[in-house]
Specification:
Belongs to the GPI family. This protein is of the alpha/beta class. 47% of the residues lie in helices and 14% in strands. The relative contact order is 0.15. The structure holds 6-O-phosphono-beta-D-fructofuranose.
Length: 451
C-alpha cells in the first residue's frame, strides 16, 4: 500500500514479493489491541509512554523558558557544550546536523558541540583547547545522573568552568535531568543551577521532543516550534489503530514479517549525507528497544552513494538477510546544475541541465531496482523537504513504529537490561564500592584471556 501525502509518504510496493496482504491481515487485531494499550492511561507501560502525546500536550511555559535561556546563550556565548550519551544527545545532534550547512564560516552563531558521548582523553582535552578563547555555556543532560561517560566529562568540564568563570558558572551550566531523582537534580536543588526536566515517563531514546533535544536545538538556532508542529501532525496522522491507515504500524508490521522470514538486518539508507546522525538516533531507538530476549532486527545505516562504493557489493550480492529502508528527501532547497562544456573533455554533456539532486534521485531509483533484483526487500520513506517540520514528523513516525514493532515481537520497548551488563563490569573493574566480588571474578577471567 502506498500512502501519499505531501509531507511524508511510504512505499511498500517492493515488498509484495516477500510478504503478502493475507499474511499482514492476520495481524490486524493484534495491532489494534497493542494500539489501544499504547493509548490507554491504564496501560501496563504507562510509566514509559509519555512520549506518545508529547507534541500535542506541549507545555508552552516550558517552551518559553527554553527559548529564553537559549536566547541568552546565543547572545552571550560562542559555544554550547552539550554533555550526554545515547538518547541524551543523539536526537539533538541528529536534527542539528541535518539542518546545519555542511561547511559554515558563520561567525556570531552559537556552535553546539558534544561531550560525554565517549571516553577519549584526547577528545576532552582537545575540546577544552578548542573553546579556550570562546565564551562557553554547558548543558549537561542525563536522566539518571549516573551514566559514567557524561559524569566524568561533566566533572572535568565543571572544574574547567569553575576556574574560568568562578561563581558565574551558576548561570553558565544548565542541567537537564529527572524531575525528582538523581545526583544532577540534587546538584540543581542544592547549588541553584538552572535546570530542565526529562519527564519521568519518557525514556532516553524517546526524549528528543523534551528539553533533552529541544533545548540544545533552540540554543543552536533550530526552530523547535516547527519541529514540534511536525511531530504534532504525525501524532494526529498516526492515531489510527488499523495498520492500513497508519503508516507507522504498516512499517512495523512489514519489518516484523520480514524478520520472521530471515531478514534480520535493516539497512537505513539515504542519499543525503546530512541525515547520517538521524540514522545514529534511529539505531539507538530500534537497537535498544528491540534487541532483547535474543530477538530483534539489527539496525545498520549507510550513506549513498558513498557506501555503494564500499559495502554496496555486499548489499547487492552478499548473504540474503538484509532489507533496506531508503529515506528520500523529495525536494532540495539547494542544488547545483551541470553545465554544457564546449570541448566535452569528460564526455558528460549528456547530463546538461541536470542537477545533482536529479542525478542523486536517479541513483536512488537505480540502486532500489538493483538491490531489489538482487533479492533485497526495499521500503521507501519519503519526506518532502529537509526542515524542522518534516524532521519532527519523521522522528515521531519512527518512535511510534518502534514501539509497535517491539510489542509485536513480544519484547518491552522501553527497557534496556542488556546495557547493564557492560555498566556493571566497568564499575566493578574501576573499583566502585559495592562491586567487590564481581571485580574479583572479572579480573580472574581477564588474566586467563590476556596473560
Ligand atoms: O540520560 P542517561 O540516564 O545518562 O542515559 C543515557 C543513555 O544510557 C542508556 O540508559 C543506556 O544506553 C540509554 O537508554 C540512555 O539514552
Amino acid at each position: 500500500m502506498t500512502v501519499t501525502k505531501q509531507a511524508f509518504s511510504l512505499n511498500f510496493s517492493l515488498l509484495s514479493k516477500f510478504i503478502n496482504e493475507e499474511e499482514k491481515n492476520k495481524y490486524t487485531n493484534i495491532i489494534s489491541m497493542i494500539h489501544q494499550e499504547m493509548h490507554s492511561p491504564t496501560s501496563k507501560d504507562c510509566d514509559a509512554l509519555g512520549w506518545v502525546d508529547l507534541a500535542i500536550k506541549q507545555d508552552q511555559k516550558e517552551i518559553e523558558q527554553m527559548l529564553s535561556v537559549a536566547n541568552e546563550i546565543r547572545t552571550k556565548s560562542a559555544v554550547l557544550i552539550v554533555i550526554g550519551i545515547g538518547g541524551s544527545y543523539l536526537g539533538a545532534k541528529a536534527v542539528q546536523d541535518a539542518l546545519t550547512p555542511y561547511f559554515s564560516k558563520k561567525s556570531g552563531e552559537t556552535e553546539v558541540i558534544y561531550a560525554g558521548q565517549n571516553m577519549s582523553g584526547a577528545y576532552i582535552n582537545q575540546l577544552l583547547q578548542y573553546v579556550e578563547d570562546r565564551e562557553v555555556y554547558v548543558n549537561v543532560i542525563s536522566k539518571s545522573g549516573t551514566t559514567l561517560e557524561p559524569a566524568i566529562s561533566f566533572r572535568v568540564i565543571k572544574s574547567y568552568m569553575e576556574k574560568r568563570y568562578g561563581d558565574e558558572i551558576k548561570n553558565r551550566i544548565i542541567l537537564t535531568t529527572d524531575p525528582k531523582n538523581g545526583l544532577l537534580r540534587k546538584l540543581a536543588q542544592e547549588e541553584g543551577y538552572r535546570s530542565f526536566e526529562v519527564p519521568a515517563e519518557v525514556g532516553g531514546r524517546f526524549s528528543v521532543l523534551t528539553p533533552v533535544g529541544l533545548f540544545p536545538l533552540a540554543a543552536g538556532g533550530i526552530d523547535i516550534q516547527a519541529l514540534l508542529d511536525g511531530a504534532k501532525q504525525a501524532t494526529n496522522d498516526l492515531m489510527f489503530s488499523n495498520y492500513k491507515e497508519n503508516e507507522a504500524y504498516e512499517y512495523a508490521l512489514s519489518r516484523y514479517l520480514l524478520e520472521k522470514k530471515g531478514y534480520i538486518i535493516e539497512i537505513m539508507a539515504s542519499f543525503e549525507p546530512s541525515l547520517r546522525n538521524v540514522f545514529e538516533w534511529w539505531k539507538q531507538l530500534f537497537g535498544e528497544s528491540e534487541g532483547k530476549d535474543e530477538k530483534g532486527i539489527f539496525p545498520v545505516s549507510v550513506t549513498y552513494t558513498t557506501d555503494l562504493h564500499s559495502i554496496g557489493q555486499y548489499i547487492q550480492a552478499g548473504k540474503r538477510q538484509i532489507f533496506e529502508t531508503i529515506l528520500h528527501v523529495r525536494n532540495q532547497q539547494e542544488d547545483c546544475t551541470i553545465q554544457l562544456m564546449e570541448n566535452n573533455f569528460d564526455q558528460l554533456n549528456f547530463l546538461e541541465d541536470k542537477t545533482f539532486h536529479d542525478i542523486n534521485t536517479i541513483a536512488k531509483n537505480s540502486s532500489i531496482l538493483a538491490h531489489y533484483d538482487g533479492g533485497v526487500p526495499v521500503i521507501q520513506v519519503e519526506i518532502d523537504k529537509l526542515d524542522e517540520y518534516h524532521l519532527g514528523y519523521l522522528l515521531y513516525f519512527f518512535e511510534k513504529a518502534c514501539a509497535m514493532s517491539a510489542y509485536l515481537s513480544g519484547v518491552n520497548p522501553f527497557d534496556q537490561p542488556g546495557v547493564e551488563s557492560y555498566k556493571n563490569n566497568i564499575f566493578a573493574l574501576l573499583n566502585k564500592p559495592g562491586y567487590e566480588s564481581l571485580k574479583e571474578e572479572l579480573e580472574e577471567r581477564l588474566t586467563e584471556i590476556f596473560d
